[in-house]
Amino acid sequence: MAAINADLSVNGYTFEDIQTLAKEILKHTSLRPKIALICGTGLGGIAEVVENPITVPYESIPGFPVSTVEGHSGNFVFGTLGGKQVLLMRGRLHYYEGYPMWKVAMPVRVMKAMGIETLLLTNAAGGLNPKYNTGDLMIIKDHIDLPGLTGECVLIGKNDTRFGPRFIATNATYDHDLRSKFKQVVLELGYGNILQEGVYIMIGGPTFSSAAEARVLRMFGADAVGMSTVPESVVGRHSGMRIFGVSLISDMVDMEDGSKFLVTHEDVLKTANERALLMQKVFVKFIHLID
Ligand SMILES: O=P(O)(O)O[C@H]1O[C@H](CO)[C@@H](O)[C@H]1O
Ligand SMILES: Nc1nc2[nH]cnc2c(=O)[nH]1
Fold first, then answer.
1. Structure pTM?
2. 1 inside domain
3. In this structure, which residue's CA is closest to atom 6 in ligand 1?
4. What Gene3D superfamilies does the database record attribute to this sequence (predicted)?
5. Which helix (H) or strand (E) holds 35?
6. In this structure, which residue's CA is closest to atom 12 in ligand 1?
7. Minimal CA–CA distance to 242: which of 193, 182, 183, 172?
């Protein structure tokens, strides 16, 4: 395999590097899925219901970064879910792990090179909307790219038009048809009482927000806050993918400064664990409906 050329002028991985990584991963399987799912914190359990799974650990892929966060196991899983070939990414990369933004979303470019057309994003997020409850599922209808607004957009740097155009619209990123199919599935399964639709805001992390920060995020119009997803959806959009996103509300954010509840990563993992079975059921049916 050719050496990975970490050329910073093109955001680390050249177009050729990305093709090389894709070929390297595809050597492990004859499957050619068009749907990929990125598993959020503690949500990798969806992989347990993948039929005939083929697991490709990140360490076995020369030049691929490792995932360092608990609840992100660090492998790709190919197989069938809901009757469709799928690719699961168990273990996303986060900015707060020290990866530059372009590296955080690099796997999405590799997915595109592997033939992925539809990108499903999941995450655990803190609830900012006072009507939400811990354990709710929030379909992402829009996002606020807080790092992007302050100069850390994932697409900053030299643009290679083989990946996508220099300038892209990011309104209407989250596909309407996929959103209504997901809604349909959740309602059919009888989970309508925990279903929300709202705006996700990305912060850099790893600090959870202070109460004053949380009030600002809410004033911006966000319903849930987390430390991921936006770079992946922007790069997916840039490469012409269809995007869907859902947040599991892992905890309700303290907005008042007086709370005794200090959120921990363990709280986030606990909620994800409690919703593992429900997420499996929902995604099997949802993926079945995707064209
Ligand atoms: O967004 P995902 O990967 O689900 O993870 C969320 O959970 C972690 C905090 O517990 C943060 O990484 C936050 O972004
Ligand atoms: N409060 C809070 N909870 C989360 N769960 C996942 N991400 C977050 C976050 O950024 N804030």
1. 0.96
2. no
3. 124
4. Nucleoside phosphorylase domain
5. strand 35-39
6. 227
7. 172
Q: Any idea how long the chain is?
A: 291
Q: Whose CA is nearest to atom 10 of ligand 2?
A: 226
Token output for 35? 């749907």
Domain count, the chain: 1
Q: Is residue 195 part of a domain?
A: yes
Asked if residue 199 has its Cβ within 6 Å of ligand 2, the reply is: no
Query: What distance in Å separates the CA atoms of residue 35 and residue 80, rounded to the nearest whole number?
Result: 10
Complex ipTM above 0.90?
A: yes
Q: What CATH number does residue 97 fall under? A: 3.40.50.1580
* Domain, as residue range, for 101: 6-289
Nearest ligand for residue 42 CA: 1
Atom of ligand 2 at shortest range from CA of 209: 11
Residue 67: predicted pLDDT = 84
Q: Is 216 within the bounds of a domain?
A: yes
**Residue 68: per-residue pLDDT:** 86
Task: Determine if ligand 2 sits within 6 Å of the CB of residue 263.
Answer: yes
Domain membership of residue 142 (yes or no) is yes
